[in-house]
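Q: Give me the 3D complex with iron/sulfur cluster.
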Amino acid sequence: MTPVFDSKNSVCVDQPCRVKILNEMYASIKSTGLLLEVIQPNSLSEIHFGQYDPERKKYAFKTLIATILSARSKDETIIKVVEDLWKKYSTPEEIADAPLENLEELVYSSGTYHQKAIRIKETSKIIHEHFQDQVPDTLEELVKLPGVGRKVANCVLNISFDKDAIAVDIHVHRISNRIGWVTTKNPEKTEIELQKLFPQSSWKMINYTLVSFGKKICKPKNPLCSECPINKKCLKLIKPPKKSKKKTKK
Ligand code: SF4
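A: Here is the predicted complex, encoded as structure tokens.
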């Protein structure tokens, strides 16, 4: 199927067109570092989306804890926090039994440390007591864990269990709206719309691609539109920002 792009309205008409754009974005950012490289020791320097490494399943618990801690924090910070945490506590039972003050100290730099320490402790307790130390591999079970919303759950399903899911964080939500793929008010709606717009085979690469692309090129403020590989296919560029009205001197 040939991708169809409506250049007048700067919008893709069909799925192949959107997938083509996604691949162009991916090609421009694939060397960017990512949290997965630390979650999974000796990881790939680049993700091969079609090639799931079963080793990742072994690190599902670490992936879950790192993703809970990553809320409103930078990957670089979380990488260090998780490394330090794992030196002291690295199993669901150990984290569940760890004194809260110790956990707070270890996750302090990730921000909202008190809340995050409580969440990882409670989640670890549930995984230890109800799931025999194994992270559940369904969305329904994951979202019942403290600190686990759809974004965290979908990340874990993607990374650890190779399941087709779209983890929508602030970058995915912002860029999908900016480009004109969706017109949505919240990440939950964006996830539903993106599921309709992309074939299931592309779902896994959406989060990784848009998060990295959002950090490197399509930044929240001052996006690098002139060097953007898809700047001829972005709705933002055909909708220039409204000029602010100059105040007239009396
Ligand atoms: S053209 Fe600008 S706004 Fe559009 S995707 Fe590229 S960087 Fe983002």
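A quick observation: The mean pLDDT is 86.
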